[in-house]
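Memo to structure team: turn this sequence into structure tokens by end of day. - J.P.
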Amino acid sequence: MKKVLLAVDETKGSKAALKTFLDLFSCMRPDTVILLNVQQFGGKSVLHDRISDTDISVLLEVVKGTEIQELLDKKSKDILESCKKFLEDNGVKGIKTVIKAGHPAEEILKTVKEEGAGMIIMGSKGKRMHTVLLGSISREVVNSSEVPVLIAR
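Reply from structure team:
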């Protein structure tokens, strides 16, 4: 496999995804590892359950060029830098970091197509504690992906 996309945020699920990646690719690494962070609004991503994709698009337009956007960018960069350092400390090379904004599942699926990734690895639950087995984002990715998806716990 030449490219693997790791969808990451600051949750335990993302840490599990990074460790699962290292276990799965312990002998042979992909040429490129795409670390993707999708910027989200709200402390617990509650807004994604309550507003439409159109509303998210409007919010994204409103925050462009503002201090809020700067804070979102800094948070994403910090998350990606931490994940990248963890992978590099474990011998992984060819890491590309990507920041997107919008509906997480849609942005993950779009990025897979744009980057030509052959697999997605992500955590089973993010911050949405109301789902029982899979988080709603991971469930949506699994149901809509054209490439294999590995959900880490």
